[in-house]
Each structure stands twice: as C-alpha cells, then as structure tokens.
Amino acid sequence: MSTTNRPLVIGNWKMNLDFVESVHLAQQIGVMLKVKPTEHADVVLVPPFVDIRSVTSVVTSERVPVAVGAQHVNAHDNGAHTGEVSTSMLKRLGVEWVLVGHSERRSMYAMNDAVVAATLRASTKSTLHAVLCVGEDGLVRDDADQEAFVEAQLESALHGLDESLRPLVTVAYEPIWAIGTGVTATLEEVSAMTNFIRRVLTRFSMPASRVLYGGSVNAENAASLMGEGGVDGFLVGGASLKAESFLAIVRAANDCYAGKR
Ligand code: PGA
C-alpha cells in the first residue's frame, strides 16, 4: 500500500541553534532553494521557540518557499503554565505546523497519551497542521509488539478528534531506537509499519493522510526510504541542522515524487 501524496520534509532543529544561527541556516536554505527549486516537495522548518520570530522574518522577507513549525505547544488557551506557549501565540508568529507528542516530549517531559490527545485537539482546532509522532522503543520491538503499541498510540490520539479536524493531521512514525542513533529502520520495517499505520488511519476515515518516517534519515537513505519504504516524507533531526544535508533529503523526496507522476 503506498500513496501518491506530495512529499513533506520537516526539519526538527530540536534544542540546537540560537537565533543568529537559525537565521543563517534559514537564509542558506532560501538561497539553495532559489538556485535549485524543489517544487514537488513541501518543506517545514521547526526551530526552537525563541528562534521562531527570526526564522519567520527571513522566510517572509526573502520569500523562502517553506513553512515554519513549532516543536511543541500547550493544549490550554492561556494561564499558569510556566515555560509553555499556546496555539494562538504560535499562530500570531506565522507558525502553521506543530509537532505533537515527539518521543522526547513523551519520555522526558511527561507527555502521556491523554496530554498528546488534548494537544492534538487544541492544535487542529486552532487550524495548525499537526504532526502526530508515534513509535516504539527497542524493548517493544524486541518483543515484536510494535504494531499493537503504535495502534494504541494512534487510537488514543485520534479517538474523539472531530472528523472535520482530521485532515490537518500528519502521522510521523519514529521508532525511538532509530532516533539520533545512526541506526535507521530497514526498508522492510518502515514499509510494514507505514502500511499498518495507513490501515489504522483508514479506520479513522483518514486514508489520504501523509505518513512520514523519522529516525536517522540522511542524504544516503532518503531515496530508498521514499521509494521502497513507501513513506510520504520525513521528520529529520540531526541532518536538518546543515543546509546541504537537509536539502539533499528534500531533493530525494522531490525527485522520487516527480518520477512517479
Ligand atoms: P534524527 O531525529 O533524524 O536525529 O534521528 C529525528 C527526530 O527525532 O525527529
């Protein structure tokens, strides 16, 4: 099962790059996209909160063909939530995308399934495009329980989400054991899980939602992950911190889609 969705490549900068470095990277990406456009792929840059304003300024003033996202958002509208930001604050900055339930948020910042579901609801209600991150750790994979695990994550996040908001959801499969480790899931593992996720999404009337892969994606493995892994794009961490390696991934996705059309 594969789709003909237009690819989406997201650069998650995590807690890297201060605002000066962020501006520099966004400008470099802008220049390189102008020299060699990739009109068959959607690109989203996801800087740390404190860099967002600077990055959206570069994107707007230099007409860089990318959207800007945030790495997290709080599900509440406002109030006593020290250290958090709201959907309306992000929207005011020109943010169009948000990552929801990245495994680092889940494991390090107590983001349980209920919080993920509430965050997904709040994000989509405010018309932000949400990237729902799911994926098992190494122990679950060792026990061959990854499908049940990911299914439970998807069901808990999507259950109760208004049908009209579901088109705003993209799913990113990110096996925790592949994140930042240099170990990429095999093409068979990626393709099996992507197909499985698509079947679950069909039950939620979301057969056309994009399914991304994340976990040590780089310029070398991107083309085969798209072609044989059957994903609709990537959520990229480490390799998104340099314009060359990030755009090589964007180009791989772009060319793969262009070749299919
Ligand atoms: P990585 O991170 O590409 O550095 O493995 C992916 C992610 O966490 O989104």
Supply the CATH class: Alpha Beta
Helix fraction, binned, reads 40-55%
Largest sheet: 8 strands, parallel, barrel
Distinct small-molecule ligands in the complex:
2-phosphoglycolic acid
List the strand order in the largest sheet.
Answer: 1-2-3-4-5-6-7-8
Number of helices: 10
Low-confidence parts lasting 5 or more residues at pLDDT below 50? Answer: none
What would CATH call the homologous superfamily?
Aldolase class I
Structure, explained:
This protein is of the alpha/beta class and 261 residues long. The protein has a single domain (8-233), classed as Aldolase class I (TIM Barrel), CATH 3.20.20.70. It has 10 helices and 8 strands. It has an 8-stranded parallel barrel, surrounded by 5 helices. Helix 8 (187-203) links the parallel strand 6 (169-173) and strand 7. The mean pLDDT is 96. The structure holds 2-phosphoglycolic acid (PGA). Residues 12, 174, 179-180, 214-217, 235-239 line the site of 2-phosphoglycolic acid. 2-phosphoglycolic acid binds at residues 12, 174, 179-180, 214-217, 235-239.
Name its key features.
8-stranded parallel β-barrel, alpha/beta, 8 strands, 10 helices, 261 residues, TIM Barrel, globular, binds 2-phosphoglycolic acid
Q: What's the topology here?
A:
Blueprint: E1 8-12, H1 19-35, E2 42-46, H2 52-61, E3 67-70, H3 87-92, E4 97-100, H4 103-108, H5 113-125, E5 129-134, H6 138-142, H7 146-158, E6 169-173, H8 187-203, E7 211-214, H9 222-227, E8 233-236, H10 243-260
Parallel strand pairs: 1-2, 1-8, 2-3, 3-4, 4-5, 5-6, 6-7, 7-8
The structure holds 2-phosphoglycolic acid.
